[in-house]
What does this fold into?
Amino acid sequence: MSVDQATVRRIAHLARIAVRDEEVPHLQEELNAILAFVEELSAVDVSGVEPMTSVIPMKLPLRADVVADQAGADVVTRNAPGAEDHYFTVPKVIE
Amino acid sequence: MTDLTKFTLAEARDAVAGKKVSALELTSAHLAEIEKARGLNAFVAETPERALDMAKAADARIASGSAGPLEGLPLGVKDLYATEGVHMQACSHILDGFKPAYESTVTSQLWRDGAVMLGKLNMDEFAMGSSNETSFYGPVASPWLPAGWDESKGREALKGDKKGLLVPGGSSGGSAAAVAAHLCLGATATDTGGSIRQPAAFTGTVGIKPTYGRCSRWGVAAFASSLDQAGPIARTVRDCAIMLRSMAGYDAKDSTSVNTPVPDYEASVGRSIKGKRIGIPKEYRIEGMPAEIEKLWMQGVEWLRAAGAEIVDISLPHTRTALPAYYIVAPAEASSNLARYDGVRYGLRVPGKDINGMYENTRAEGFGREVRRRIMIGTYVLSAGYYDAYYVRAQKIRTLIKRDFELAYADGIDAILTPATPSAAFGIGEKGSADPVEMYLNDVFTVTVNMAGLPGLAVPGGLSSQGLPLGLQLIGRPFDEETLFSVAEVIEQAAGRTTLPKAWW
It folds into this structure.
């Protein structure tokens, strides 16, 4: 399988990565090189094989439903590029 | 006075515990070396004040008789680990200025046991790379000079773009280079497809990726969560064993960490391997493998046979599928994990015409080329219509890869010996610029181990015809790191400790 330029643009948008027009042909080439590399997997017989879900067999533990590690809003918003009154700020999303 | 940076970690530990050297002297000696070695670009953030404070506190604990097992030992920390209040960028532009408000579990255990933090180490951006060249902070130069180079040629290249100097491997390139250059006694590293073992092999150091679940991943920036494991790089097998004991252990904050006791790994160093059954997998004899790699491997076989091990030819038929399957599973998980870097909660923000524009511009500018490429591949293989053909198929193949190992171990194999890398270190700027897959092939021997969740260790086996280090890899049963340390010690004794380069930088 290989991707065309429209697909490259669609994937970039799904991944929320801006791409310039001049980048598209090169990206297409690189992605197709990787897809060609993984192509040999389609020849492997996987009938009756379960997909791996956990590499070490273990039961997912459940923790007690209690409050823990309360860092506080000061600490949580400290690294934000935009924060006001303990809220993260973003460009306007509702008119 | 003897050069305090030439100690192994074990020797330094004994010297500090025996009050022959203070933690402060030991730490100061390393800080001085780091300053002189800035040209290598191994450290991306130095923390000398914190190091000196930690060393003084260590000396106080030694004086009061409450010293921990790593008391006063200066270490480097890969930039992927969260260190409270200290630079942590995963060597990505997108985490600009980020200082976490928390400490990773693994590093907190090192400090609990008395270790001293010297600073943060360079790495491939988000641990995606095999040469340390994808770092936002620029490449790391290996302390090993290319064949035929003299010291002044090396120093000249350090001042420029470093082209022609050797890569230390990656993604834990800063960790491996710093350990090989005697800038720290040991370093934390992480391994998703070979990122501990390949740089260890390239620099003549020892590195172990423990069993998945052995070390907590809490506070380590996630790349591919089902493959990532923390582990040490150090100059000897014993030093790795000492560090791993402190790094390992159950952590309720990582639901995939496993609650089994941590053995005293150091006790397994020097243990006899008589009667151990060592598997030699025929599928690792790949097409185009250099004769010197084959020779190294067979030398390893002879050393283990001479130590009383039984050598058994085995087959791991799905080996060939591991690397392509990895390049589906790892990018898929990365595309999901790296969705969190959106310009809202931390790091870089680049404005856009609306919120989507802000996300897209931030991620386009904040992520480097290799990271963007992997996020896009991951997004594609998880997208509607392709999920079954790529992702589910790769996870089925992973089941087959793991089954190969299970069958070998069920037949009584104790450990498996392979080469660590298909070649010695290559030059900065030499690989992967035209075709990303060229770089990916570095991990052909290591990636199977992550896919199967097993422990894997790289130990120096000798030098190439160009005089560069070559490593052997040992693969173990789940949670049997002890056998790896015993067998690796035999190789280290037989091969002789690698003579690391003298400081030319």
Q: What stands out?
A: Chain B has a mean pLDDT of 97. The first helix of chain B runs from residue 9 to 17. The domain at 37-317+403-495 of chain B is CATH 3.90.1300.10 (Amidase signature (AS) enzymes).
